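Hi all, long-time lurker, first post. I run a small reading group and we've been trying to get comfortable going from sequence to structure in the token notation. Rather than ask abstract questions, I figured I'd post a concrete chain and ask someone more experienced to write out its structure so we can walk through it together at our next meeting. Sequence below, copied exactly:
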Amino acid sequence: MKEWKIKQTDNLKLPNLPQYPALILKLLALRGFTDEEKIRDFLDPDYNKLHDPFLFADMQKAVSRIRQAVAAAELITIYADYDADAITAASVVYLALQKLGAKIDYYIPDRFTEGYGVNLEAVKKISEAGAKLIITVDCGTNSIEEAELCQTLGIDLIITDHHEVTGPPAGGLPQAFALINPKNPKDGYPFPYLTGVGVAYKLVQALDMKGWEKWLLDLVAIGTVADCQSLSGENRILVSFGLKVLKKSRWPGVAALIKAVGVDLRSLDTYTLGFLLAPRINAAGRLTHASAAFKLLTANDPHEAVTLAKELNELNIRRQMLTDQVLSEARAQVELAVEKKVFVLHSEDWPKGIVGLVAGKLAEEFSRPVLVMEKGEIFATGSARSVADFDLVAALNFAKDYLQKFGGHTQAAGFTLVVEHIEAFHQKLLEYAESINFMIVPPSLELDAVLQPSDISWENYDMLKQFAPFGIGNRKPRFAGFGLKVLDLRTVGNASKHLKSCLAFGEHTLDAIAFNQGFIANTLKIGDTVDAAFELNANEWNGNKSLQLKILDIKA
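-- Answer (accepted) --
Happy to help. Here is the structure in token form:
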């Protein structure tokens, strides 16, 4: 059972805006919106309020060089990493350059033989193929040697990326023709939380596509949600409009993928993006090669798109089975070191395409940083996932003497090290945890407000829908309700996995569903009074529409 943490609203200053219900004003104020204009921008995102792409210092240089390459029919190679953010970013740039009539190619490294990021051998291959311009997406910020090689080979390198600067010397940047990264400390771009596909879209915006670039927003939305960045500021605008474009996508691959997962176009949301579409795009790079996903998103032939979507669907099923297996084995290792503040787990049998997923699930489950590795004969390659107060980039930098390379964000990172250094590396991370006085906090449930029976209304529900798109940095509002009476109770689903109930809350009688909590039926009975943590949802069935509760936790 989780501890409930209800946000304090006693001293919250609410704006004098009577056109909004009191509950909505309270929730807006908790998100930092008390000014009428900011409230309007939040509830009704405005595409025209995206920042000028030329606020990136090197953007004009990049645009001029791309225009020159298109005019001279020079070969441009797009260099991408292999996750959903990178693949959508590569697709955005590829489709835009195709629209401009460019001569283009792409290069996506093999996760299993090359690893992440730009590598020297790949640059040589691209040079041999005749490219005079490389545009990276979602990588390159710390590729100092690779940038030097590009200069030697007479290749201009345009880097579009969003990762933290970790290159040597401290804060060192590659000598690229242009570097476009909101994390570049020398740049000062006003929104630092763009994803790789977000930065790629800013480049396309700057190419002045006369509005055509908006058709790429569905791809931008998928990659943005997949990369788990804050859905605030520009990201909120991009995803909001991306969901609208997704309903009428121009790309056969996107349409085929939506059909393959069986999603109703009327119900597209960030769950669709993050948990249905993105995992299938990621599955290719995790198990085989990400080029299959790239080919799907850039396909022109609907028949080819259907075949590729089916292939990704099947790969995702395999990925799910492998993840469950590795997760079970990793938990067994956790049980032997459950007292440690940082988990470092490894095995020769864990595919490197799966370790990031497992690290994420364990970090959430145990409320501490988790690093999971595939251990080879000489090198171990891993992914790390963290919790709020533990900066992974800072931690890996603290332990960099043991690392061959590393990179990423504060909450998610990748790394490579020599196998014999694993134990010393782990000790260094534990030392870092002590140096910042990192504390393991038991799992908790953050709730926005206590909901009264009088707050249950269609007016409030309709306003809450305008808080979408939901995700990191803009979670769906969660409430606590006290003194609900159990009127009906039963388990549903395979193996009685879920709990379905009917609850009396003041004058309301509400259906409620608690996913994966069927076991609660053993501790409750009809007539009990309970406290519940929940989200407010709507249910439509046979033309009938009713408000219902999605139970997150329940206490007798």
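A couple of things your group might point at:
The two ends are 12 Å apart (CA to CA).
The first strand starts at residue 3 and ends at 6.
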